[in-house]
Amino acid sequence: MAEFIAAAEATSLPHGHGRTVHVRGRELALYNLDGQFYALDDLCPHAGGSLGGGCLQHGSVICPLHEWAFDLKTGQCLSNPTIAVNIYPTRIQNGEVQIALECMGGQNGQEQKF
User: Fold this and answer.
1) pTM of the model as a whole
2) Does some domain include residue 106?
3) The CATH number of the domain where 26 resides is what?
């Protein structure tokens, strides 16, 4: 069973917004899309841009450096389906967004730089 770790107050992240959160020494991008929270690796595999500093567009986060887009639900890069970032399960408990650091998709920990 995955261990969920508190990452942020649910009310601190309005619908359509995201940010970088620190969970047990790791940086993750956390987004609220229509009341559902999504967590993914914070660093874009292209040039290391912070995905938590990106913006949402049609269910994808857009990297602020070179505008690479990643699907929040799968971690897949929209312009190159062979590239992905890791995604992580989330849940809301007692008003907190919690993240399990057990990867459930994406590149499964393989570092990719382009």
Assistant:
1) 0.88
2) no
3) 2.102.10.10
